[in-house]
Specification:
alpha/beta; binds glutamine; 2 domains; globular
């Protein structure tokens, strides 16, 4: 049996029955990576020796005992490179474990490998990686989505049992949708970001990408909770997210927002999502139409707030403290200028310039302050909706995976990839993407994602809704045509 294709919960069962060992899982992953990662390029690096050493001491009685989990290159793992797929962090090795990594280790998991991403998590296709794009395992000519495209691709290609990603505007859910896996963005403050390299601090969250919903719940159980090192974490009890998975949807009301079924939505995506909605109705849920009237402003608002915060967060990469430093420097300003010019890629520079402009005196009120006000309206839309419904159903991405290179010269087209995911970050609510079908494009099968949004700290409900669908469908079991 290929151990690399196991779900986390199946691997846990087999480990506890002593049918397999953590070492065998790591060895099988290494084999699989050697076999397919040349074509996928989901990993920037991995350290089999260290993973094997960790595997030898793994205690399989712990909640994730002996389970390797692949980590997006934006989360610090002590002694591993943490480069955010950027040249500017070349050679930088993380001196400490992020809180999520500490929690994973305490639960017996093995942090394994660094997954590719868009540089500093800015992008929707992994094409902004300084080390070349990741390819979609369903069609190597297409993107896996982004920015956590390395994480989604390695999970889909069975080069990982599960992975961590980060989601600022859709970077877990959109790649999960495009690669046919499960990805959850937790409520803002549910998971500590201590040790996550900051992109936009009022939006960023870490979350799992997995092969099924139960795995996502198991990892959420471990990584959630308050953290004295991250003052934005919420001091609320962590419920057992696996407890309600099988409760069904009979007593639930699910909302269908009309603003998410708009022009530009791919007809095959719409058809799959509407079929999923009909399926929920059959399973006993009550479906109601709702409206989130400020949705159309989410994209423009996000592209003020996220770059503004990024421009401040990325000021620290100056060639003095971390990683790369330019050669042939003549003075301090030249040092900053050359290092940042050579170290950052195009999209990161674009964001820094946009963000600096939006925050500059004279423009702050017109852009940043205004965007914050619109953000409040977006949050209120969701408050009103969740007064009537338990969760919201909509597409995760307006299209299936697009071709590599197709949008790289048109930032606006690229930004539109996240039109359905950004609002959840702006409102701070939780959301999950699960497979709900396939589009047939040019003779290839491309996964489609269903997004389920839930109110603040209601991860248990969206996991329950997601699991109910997954248990009665087979989409999540289909594997990409990789040899
Ligand atoms: N694609 C969006 C962006 O480029 C979201 C990225 C993210 O969630 N990290 O900003």
């Amino acid at each position: 049996m290929a151990l690399s294709s196991l779900t986390v919960h199946k691997a846990q069962d087999l480990l506890r029955q002593k049918e397999i060992s953590p070492k065998e899982i790591v060895e099988d992953l290494v084999r699989r990576i050697e076999q397919v990662d040349g074509a996928v390029h989901g990993y920037l690096s991995f350290d089999p020796e260290r993973a094997l050493k960790d595997a030898e001491h793994a205690d399989v009685s712990l909640p994730l005992g002996g389970i390797p989990i692949s980590i997006k290159d934006v989360v610090s793992v002590q002694g591993h490179p943490c480069g955010c797929a950027s040249k500017i962090l070349q050679g930088y090795v993380a001196p400490f474990d992020a809180t999520v990594i500490k929690k994973l280790r305490a639960a017996g998991a093995i942090p394994f490998g660094r997954t590719n991403m868009d540089e500093f998590a800015m992008g929707s296709s992994t094409e902004n990686s300084a080390f070349g794009p990741t390819r979609n395992p369903w069609d190597p000519d297409r993107t896996p989505g982004g920015s956590s495209g390395g994480s989604s691709a390695v999970v889909a290609a069975d080069e990982a049992l599960a992975a961590l990603g980060s989601d600022t505007g859709g970077s877990i859910r959109q790649p999960a949708a495009l690669c046919g896996c499960v990805g959850i963005k937790p409520t803002y403050g549910r998971v500590s970001r201590y040790g996550l390299v900051a992109f936009a601090s009022s939006l960023d969250q870490i979350g799992p990408l997995t092969k099924d919903v139960r795995d996502a719940a198991m990892i959420m159980n471990v990584i959630s909770g308050v953290d004295p090192c991250d003052s934005t974490t919420l001091d609320e009890a962590v419920v057992d997210y696996t407890a309600d998975l099988d409760k069904g949807v009979k007593n639930l009301t699910l909302g269908l927002p009309k603003e998410y079924f708009i022009e530009g939505l791919d007809p095959q995506v719409e058809e799959a999502v509407r079929a999923a909605v009909a399926w929920y109705e059959k399973l006993g849920a009550k479906i109601v139409d709702i409206s989130l009237p400020h949705t159309e402003h989410a994209l423009s608002t996000y592209y003020i707030i996220a770059p503004a915060e990024a421009s401040a967060n990325l000021a620290r990469f100056d060639g003095v403290r971390y990683g790369f430093r330019a050669d042939g420097i003549t003075g301090l300003l030249d040092h900053y200028g050359k290092t940042r010019e050579e170290g950052f890629g195009q999209e990161v520079k674009r964001r820094i310039i946009l963000g600096t402009y939006a925050l500059s005196s004279g423009y702050y009120d017109a852009y940043y302050l205004r965007a914050q006000k619109v953000r409040t309206l977006i949050r209120r839309d969701f408050d009103d909706a969740f007064a009537k419904v338990d969760a919201i159903l909509c597409p995760t991405s307006p299209t299936p995976a697009f071709k590599l290179g197709e949008r790289t010269n048109d930032p606006l087209q690229m930004y539109l990839a996240d039109v359905f995911t950004l609002a959840a970050n702006m409102a701070g609510i939780c959301g999950i993407s699960i497979p709900c079908g396939f589009a047939e494009v040019e003779g290839k099968k491309l996964p489609i994602g269903l997004q389920i949004l839930g109110k603040t700290l209601n991860e248990a409900t969206i996991l329950q809704v997601a699991n109910t669908y997954e248990q009665s469908t087979d989409w999540h079991r289909l594997k990409p045509p990789l040899r």
